[in-house]
Here is the input.
Amino acid sequence: MADYDVVIIGGGPGGYNAAIRAGQLGLTTACVDSRATLGGTCLNVGCMPSKALLHASEMFEKAMGVDFKTLGIEVEPKLNLAQMMKQKAESVAGLTKGVEFLFRKNKVEWLKGHGRIAGPGKVVVRAEDGSETTCGAKNIVIATGSIPAPLSGVQVDQTRIVDSTGALSLAEVPKRMIVIGAGVIGLELGSVWRRLGAEVTVVEYLDRILPGTDAEIALTLQKSLAKQGMVFRLGAKVTGAKASDKAVALSFEPVAGGAAETLEAEVVLLCVGRRPNTQGVGLESVGIAPDRRGFIETDHGRTSAAGVWAIGDVTPGPMLAHKAEDEGVAVIETIAGRAGHVNYAVIPSVVYTSPEVATVGRTEEELKAAGVDYKVGRFPFSANSRARINHEGEGLVKVLADARTDRILGAHMVGPDVGEMVGEWCVAMEFVAASEDVARTCHPHPTRSEALRQAAMAVEGWAMQV
Ligand code: FAD
Ligand code: NAI
Here is the structure.
């Protein structure tokens, strides 16, 4: 039986970053993962393949449509879906191999197989051939991630009714696609297939898209996606889906009451959230009981069992790769006797549609509900010179600041490449900046980032370019 300072179960962004940090800090480390390649959901069937298709499909649509023509570029693009999928797979393979390289570099051992806690300080690894090995661990980190949430009456078969994994590998562009759930996956993957030619209808239970996102930003995105051709059926409750060889009949009815309807599509994408993956991890062997929704509750990464930690999607909070990564690093630093910490108030979130959505901090609705006195600064991309010259003037930047102290409480953006710019708000918020700090910071011209500065100026009513 090998003994380690740390054994991490799960090799996604939580687990692999924890493993690398542990290796850096000189802890003897193993990471157990049962997939053929490292990187977890994010690298294999999540963030990275979805971004590969979002990028490629956006290029295709630009070349197909008004964007290129407006710029004076005339081309006749033709979709080669097989090549699009191939380049996605090659990029993903490069990234997963990259994690293997980082493991070797930091002396992390990858124990291939299914990991199960078998009592305090013990992890059993079951290899693909069924053989089992037990290792000793001073610390066990649970980083087993999440899996798609099911919906009763809608049976995923990965052919006609797919989840996000199926939707990343369709062999042909469906004529029609119905997306159940107007969350992040629905809007991103719905955008991919609409750009490639599918008629996409999004059926959402709530009367809005992207629940939890600042409502003004979400509505701006909804209008933009609707203009692109995405159809929204909001306030609609799905009651069942019947798949045949050629199509799926999806039934739904208004949540507020009214006549039921049936829509047909060649493919239905089910994406109504994800749930923590704790099945078969052996939690009971160390007395950990997941909460009502299946999450493992933690206090700074510590579970209720001594020497057992949990990070990432398997714990409460946003299911995001960078949240998992930060928790992984914090837990390892704590194990190594350092001051590990995650600032949950500053975890950004990006929706990689076009235009993009990027947000951090509290929404206007949250501030109202908490009775916080706040000021708002807004700046539209239509008034930003770089966005205008690029013909991408849709969207806005909105910053919320404390009315008394001017401290930035939240920043919410929808517009071109805002995902690349939200880090500026994160840094400002980590340094407890006032909106005036950003307003008085020199930004390069001409860049879209000037819209952030102008929005900060607008908090005190002196935005100059609108
Ligand atoms: P995971 O990445 O889920 O990794 C857990 C790993 O553990 C998996 O490899 C799993 O197979 C393995 N495992 C589980 N149980 C065991 C066991 N008992 N033994 C051995 N191995 C086990 N987030 C973003 O921040 N940005 C994005 O753009 C983004 N896009 C996404 C797109 C899609 C389509 C999806 C589905 C998700 C996306 N996410 C995105 C979310 C992101 O993928 C997750 O938040 C992130 O992967 C969580 O990391 P994790 O380490 O907690 O778990
Ligand atoms: P989600 O939680 O983002 O959205 C699910 C949507 O489905 C919600 O709008 C919800 O109201 C709706 N819904 C729930 N039940 C429904 C029903 N019965 N009928 C119709 N609609 C219903 O979940 P999603 O899109 O599945 O994504 C899962 C997670 O993956 C997200 O929490 C997100 O954190 C992560 N992710 C992150 C990405 C990013 O950061 N860019 C990209 C993709 C996923």
Q: What stands out?
A: The radius of gyration is 23 Å. The chain has a mean pLDDT of 97.
